[in-house]
Design brief:
repeat; mainly alpha; about 55% helix; single chain; 2 helices; about 0% strand; sporulation
Length: about 60
């Protein structure tokens, strides 16, 4: 069995490098903003309103 090097996973990933990249991403605000930046809030609200209107129409029949 191969001896595991310190700061490396069994797959050979450099743990310290990954932690540094994660810290840089967190500082840059990249976590959680990726999807929000692609969302058109007005469009979502409009689609929700249309869906509610259709639901109300269907339930009154």
């Amino acid at each position: 069995m191969a001896k595991q090097q310190p700061n490396k996973t069994a797959a050979g990933t450099n743990i310290q490098e990954v932690r540094q990249q994660n810290a840089q991403s967190a500082q840059a605000g990249q976590f959680g903003t990726e999807f929000a930046a692609e969302t058109n809030v007005q469009q979502v609200k409009q689609q929700n309103a249309q869906a509610e209107a259709r639901k109300a129409q269907n339930s009154s029949k």
